[in-house]
Every structure is written in structure tokens, then in C-alpha cells.
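Worked example 2:
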Amino acid sequence: MDADLVIRNGKVYSVNLDGEESRGEAVAVSGGKIVAFGSDAEIERYISENTEVIDARSNSILPGFSDAHLHATFTASAVYTCNLFGIFPNESNDKKELIRRYQDEMRAYIAERPDDEMYRGTGWKLGYFGFAQEDMPTKFDLDEVCSDKPVVLESFCQHHIWVNSKALEIAGIDKDTPDPRNGNLWKNDQGEPTGLLSEFSAMNIMKDNLPNYDLSVEKYKETLRQYQTEFANRYGVTLIFDALCTENGREAYREMAADGELTIRVAAHYYADPNDPETRIDEFIARKGADDIPDSYKVVCVKFFMEGSGLDFYLGEPYEAECLKAAGLPADYRGNPYWTAEELECWFTRLNEAGFQLHTHAMGDESVTHTIDAYEYAYNKTGKKPRNVIAHLMLVKDSDFARMGELGIVGCVQPTWMSNEPVM
């Protein structure tokens, strides 16, 4: 067999499915797949006059990297909205001064776009404001910047949004709007919305009721072209899992794959909404495979959240006393799970049986335990082990590390989530 590509004079390390290790100097590639590796002499027979030959110059030869959890489509929010990532507290940690800096950035952004129907920003940090309600930003701060059009600022972690009064009005959120399951519509002592909304169930009330809130498919495509050229291709990333993207974001991937524009393979997901699980999960099962483009783009799994962020982690023991005191929470507060054990067992079993993988956001140790319990239940019911994933894993009991190994559960950890944020 003649190879399309041979890379030689390198260092190759390989492990097969039985755990046996092998080392070599060269690899041969044909039809986009590695067909052989070994010594330079062994691979020589794959070289013909049509073979591209690369000299690795004694460097390591690695396959393409896979990024198992990222949000490439979220990049569009930073590109096409006001970028607030570069704003940090001053040395005195003056909250009012920090708000003024966010206001100034938005004023400058709005001044350049007087005809826009809505103004969006991305990258502010709730953690900079501590726990005290009086220090938090409010709708009135953004009303000073713009009062006649909606203003929506997404946090850097995408778990909070900060909006003005006009956005609340258009979305129909007022003092009579109840908190959705697993979400928080922040309200003041008079019961009026403050302009902060936390976690997806609450944020989606805003996003779903603001006309044309989501970015267009074309804007997502333009951002993804930039992402794959400047980041994925440049650093050898050949496969990504986009762990949370909108319907327009998924359509952008699908169209790029269909048009041959993707230079990476993409795995995506459907989002399991605790507010309407049965309808959504029936839809996912019926839709399975319909969005896939062979060898380029697949919707491979369903994404669950066991909890949110910050003081929303679900713990086996209460949070630190000083944290709870500062936040005005009871001394026995441990957070709350977004799904009951019975719900997880039901939906995990149905989805695994239908051929989906599961990707569950779990940070607190009790969240991890509940997720493992439900995965194990689904495995026992279906007889399948589809490499389900737990993402983030901030706190894990020693016994649960062992259980994950025994059950073949993939641990997906993001080091950047370990950064020293004030809220932590």
C-alpha cells in the first residue's frame, strides 16, 4: 500500500486497546488514517513517488488533539458584542468604581452603534462584587447608560446576566414573575427585579423573550472560521466537543460541515432543560442523527447540569461558615441539585438506550455522587456503557474516583475553572 503521507525521523509512542506500549520513528497515513507505524526502515515500503514525506527532525509525532469540553460558539458573544473581559477591580476594590468602568465601556460601544435595536456585552464578573446585595450591580446602573433600548450583559462564565429596565419590560419580567426551577431572578426588599438573573432557567426567560436575541447563523459561522484557523488548526486540535451552544450555533456547524468548510471534526449536544424534560428528551430521541454530517459533525450526547456555579454547588457538607454568613445563607446550606435521583435515573436510562452519551456538569462532591449513581443505574438497566462524562469535578470523594474508574465514566476537567476568583 502506498501512503499519502509519511512522517519519519521522529519519536512515536502508541498504546493499543490492551494497554500494550509500542515505540517507533515513523508513521504512514493513507486516506486520512494512520495505517502503520514503526522504524524508518519498516515504513520505507509505504513511500512512493506520490507520497508526501515529512522529516520530523527527531521531534515527537502526535495525533490530533481532542478538546473534550469547550464553547467555541460562545466566542461569537465576545466578537459581536461589547467585550468586557479586560475590566478588573482597582486596588481598593471599589464596587461603585467598577460599575462606572463597565458603564463607560458600554457608553462608548453604544455611541458607535446608535441604530442598533439592542446592546449586548460579554465578560463581566459577578464574583468581583462579593455577596452583599447593596454592592451588586442593578438595572438602574444600565438605565443610566441606555434606558430606551434593551441592554444585556452576559457574565464571563455564562451563568449570569445583568440587564436594564427596558430588557426586563420587554421580556415581561416583573415582581410577580416567580423564580423558575433552578434559576434566580434577583429581587430587592420590595420584590422588584434588580436586573440580575442567574443560571440558565432564569436567563432563558430573558433570552427567549427578547426578539432576535441570539446571534445569526452567519455570525456564528464567521467566528468559527476564525476559531478553527487561529486556534484549532494552529495548535493541532482536530476534534472538539462544544459543550453548550444555541440552535443557531448548531446550525452554523451543520452548514459548515455540509459545505466542506469545517477543518476540524465537531461533536455537539442537546441541552436537557429541567423545566420541560419530557418534551425535550422525546424530541432529542426522535431527532437523533438528523443533524449529523458524516465524519464532520455529529450531535452525540445530551448535556445535563447537576448544579450551577459559585454558591450553587451541591455539597456533601455545608459551605464554609464565613461564606454563608457573608451571603446571608443558613449555616447548614449545601446547595441544591437541579435534578432528583428518580429523574436522572429515568432520563439517563432512556437516552443511553437511544444511543446518546451523557455529559453532566457536576462540581460539588454530592453532585458527582448523584451523577455516578444515576449513570450506574442506567448502565445496569441498559447493559450499555457509552463512555458517559462528568465535567468539571471541583470536589470529588475518594470513593467516587474509584467508582468512576470501575464504571468507565470519563472525568473531564478544565484547569481554567480552578482560577482564584474572589467569589471562591
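The CA atoms of residues 147 and 166 lie 6 Å apart. The longest strand covers residues 297-305.
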